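dumping this here before i forget
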Amino acid sequence: MTKKYDVVIVGGGIGGLTAAAILSKKGKKVILIERNESLGGYLDTFQRNEFIFEASLHIMDSCDKKTQTYKIFKQSGVADKIKFLKPRYLYRSIFPGYSITVPQVDTIKWYFKKISQDFPAEKDGAKRLFEELDYVYDNLYDLRAVNMTNRISRYKEMLSRGNTPASSLINRFIKDYRLRAMLGQLWPYLGLPPDKVSSLYFSYLWVGLNRYGAFYPCGGSRTIVSAFQKSIIDHGGKIILNDNVKKIVVVNNMATGVVTEKNGVIEGRSVISNADALTTYTRLIGKNISNKFFIKRLRRMTPSISVFQCFFGLKDYKLPKDYSEDYQIFLNPSYDFTKTYYAALDNDVDKASLTLTLHSNLAKGSINSKRSVMSIYMPSNYDCWNAMSRNEYLDKKQQMCESMIARLKSLFPGINRFIQTKETLTPVSLNKRTGNSMGAIFGWAQTPGQAGLRRLPAKGAVNNLFLASAWTQPGGGVVGSMHSGRNAAEAIMNMGR
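structure:
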């Protein structure tokens, strides 16, 4: 096997796949090394008995042809290989004594109508809030189209706006606590409640979903992974599975390749790490990094939260008619999202906000067919699970799964009688699968202090080493990781210009 490449990529999550696809399509000699037997990282499915479950992907935002995300699909050579489904409803949100179902057609008009009906005194404030959200999104979206001087100026402005939590932005315009919760409901997609998540990330997600819609790939996340894998191979790239990178070789503060367990030394003019930032710099590089200030900065940063998730395979179950077209449902025992967030960190299922996904409702054979699947999750703390004994761990999983079923029964009476298969994922199991520190699902926590330029850039503290993952700019999630992969690829293409 040839062991000299233009680019060596460590890890086959969506950030690494995006970088590999773009670079191989541009003619670079690329090799991607993945420690697991399959690619995708969090983009994965698994089978239990006759049921196939989506491991983590619920929705993707901004997949419309007008968006930067679609442009990345085109750059990667996969735009015509992936088809998307668009749920009729963006989500249903259930609170004590109040609920809403948000459509995916004329969504903003729907909001104004709903607010005029239920919160007439808030109409003007909502208009100003939506204008502010649009302003942030559009300025972030257009950054790549402006010259460098204007880009830096605009970045600084966006950074100042990102210094505040989303709750400060919402509360500046909205006074009614119920409407504040209604407009802040998308927080589970960011991993932090409105009083903790950066307004920058909240604005981008809110507009991306409400203006351009929520999508799910036909065939599930494996369709995306397979399309990227095929593009890489078709353009001459090489992929190695089941091989663990033990070390990124650094000579005179320059990355020169990697050392793997099975293939030994693989040289590269550049190295892209799709592994988490902590693993990259503290384990794969370690003492070979000369920038000690950078390591101190790294250790001060906080990984995002993880999740506890239950998967249910059902047989012969028929949803109540009112829920036959639902896809995403938020179950909120309180309007106070900070309260429900901390309940989740205490593993208190009864008091936590839960996110329910009815994946089968998007398929041709809906959840009313013979077999169907659904999943439900909440934020969860890695340290809590990691400190448990084996028996405590198994008992806690079972207890929390039963508590989630009880919450489901309050929505769908008698559903427990149709559950044929149950599976759970914890922060510990997510850590083992992906290698992400503490089972983090968004890279670094998306707080004001770790937003925008305060997140790690694609180019790090070692020459010829680049990062492509949720741990870098612009941010977490599938779409954020794709953008990060594109950023790393373009940084390499621009070297020497």
